[in-house]
Amino acid sequence: MSQTTGPRQPPPEDHAANSGRERFAAGARRAASVGGKGLRIGALFTARATRAAGQAADRRVTEMVGGPARKRVIVLLAGVLALSAADVAAIGAAGEPLKASLSIGNGQLGLLVSVVALSGGIATIPVGMLADRMNRFRLLSVSIVLWALAMIASGLAPTYTWLVYSRIVLGIVVAVAGPAIASLVGDLFFPHERGRVLGFILAGELIGTGIGYAVAGMVTAVLPWRAVFFVFSVPAFLLAYWVWRLREPKRGGQDRLAPVTPEGSKRRPKKEVDDRAVHDRVRDAGITPTRAGVLDEDPARMPIQRAIRYILKIPSNVALIISSALGYFFFAGLKTFGILFIAGHFHMGTAVVSVLFPIIGAGAILGVLFGGRVGDWLLGRGRFSGRMVVGASGYVVVAAILPIVLLTGSFAIAFPVLVFVAAALAWPNPALDSARLDVVVHQLWGRAEAVRTVLRTGAEALAPLLFGVLSDHIAGGGELGLRWTFAIMLVPLLASGVVLFRARRHYPGDVAAAAITEERFEPDAKAATQSAG
User: Fold this and answer.
1) Counting beta carbons within 10 angstroms of the beta carbon of residue 247, is it exposed (0 to 12), middle (13 to 18) or buried (19 or more)?
2) Which residues have C-beta within 8 Å of that of residue 235, sequence separation ≥ 6?
3) Which of 9, 104, 267, 488 is the most buried (most CB within 10 A)?
4) 475 Rama class: left (phi>0) / alpha (psi -120 to 50) / beta
């Protein structure tokens, strides 16, 4: 007799195992569900917190600069300078693969940077004439488009010669930026605040350098060197569009952007300061004008040769131009050989120093903000030559404290000194840029800045070559050669500070001469400016 059997039952131990796996799977599903919700909540919270922080920062910046209209102009002008700085970062980051691709050496690589400054210097004088006669925002916008196209051409370069020619075109934005920005700041912002405003704008150049190195480094880590130039061209087209949309102000300060305090602002009201134009205060103080600075012909119609001769007859302006050029000369040498010197002197890897270098650069950003504010503060309290003193003090401080870095063997001691050196090198720039606007009539602002830009770009182009050659031929080269090179180059930097300090006595008379000339040839504009102020 056969026996009927039902379905085979799993052993008790198998049933327990299956039950355990099911419980584990159910627990995992519940954990994933909870975790997914947690991730979504965390992402949502982070996004909202980031947006709130960004909005708070934007409100704070808007309050600091005096309203959204002023912020828009400052940010876009700072962006123009950031473009120029990012170009150097592109060459630096793409250096090694670029050399291998085009079979060039360090000298040819350095020429790619120098040729931009040299071509910009050559083009600056005619561009300065255009800045005194044309719509400056449109001029800037066109130059940015050309810059972007030149960056694309650089990325497409099949040969080294092609790359050099595309770099020459890049110098156009360097040539346009100096005269156009200086002239626009003079017409859009009040004299007593120009240093502070220029501090914000010049900070864009330093921030652009840092961002440029970071972006270029990330791009070259995963893509060919040509991609760096394409990446930088994209924001350039957007910047050109936004700059084109800005409204050109009237010449002579008749169309300035008055600061606005947003509703609900918690900022404390500022103490009362003398916010009249520098020209008005100097004239009311009875300052005797410098005879060479008083013009007998309309500056707006002066031929370029006579305009340049006049600009170079203003004593304090000559000192300002020379000192500024020497400051940029030393800064260019420090940027070029600073990492190499620090790595060799303190026996550190260049990769480590490269990470620390942006912190030193942050000192420069704080420096331009500090210098602009202090120069305006001194001027607001009747110290007519305050901006000159601020400029001179920066160069003298660098010459006094940099030897600490050259002599010490401790990086812990040297690092904060280097941060302060970067700040001291940077804080003269907004003060000196503002002082140049004070001593030159507004009809010549573009051409005067062009003369200064020629010397500045020439100094920046010459610095890497001179620093390099001198360091190779002194004290056996190497780290010791660089150390002696920095020590020697402190002498002209110190001299520029002394010359600037001595030239401060000419500044009030030069300002008075500019005031008389403007009143002589634009009395209606002068009256409109006084009523608006």
Assistant:
1) exposed
2) 83
3) 104
4) left
A 10 A CB-CB count for 443 gives 24
pLDDT values of the chain reduced to their tens digit, one per residue, 533 residues: 445 555 555 555 555 556 666 766 666 566 656 656 655 666 566 556 656 655 666 677 777 777 888 889 999 999 988 887 777 767 766 777 777 888 877 667 777 777 887 788 788 888 888 888 889 999 999 989 988 898 898 888 888 888 888 888 887 777 888 888 888 988 888 887 888 888 888 888 888 877 777 787 778 778 888 888 888 888 899 999 999 999 998 887 777 888 877 665 555 545 545 555 666 677 666 788 888 888 888 888 888 888 889 999 899 999 999 998 898 888 888 877 777 788 888 888 766 776 777 788 888 889 998 988 898 888 877 787 888 999 999 999 999 999 999 998 898 899 999 999 999 999 998 988 888 888 888 888 888 888 888 888 888 878 877 888 888 888 777 788 888 989 999 999 999 999 999 988 888 888 888 888 888 876 544 544 444 34
Q: Which two tokens stand for residue 117?
A: 């400054």
Cα-based distances in Å from 412 to 338, 417, 418 = 16, 9, 10
Sign of the CA dihedral 288, 441, 380, 370? negative
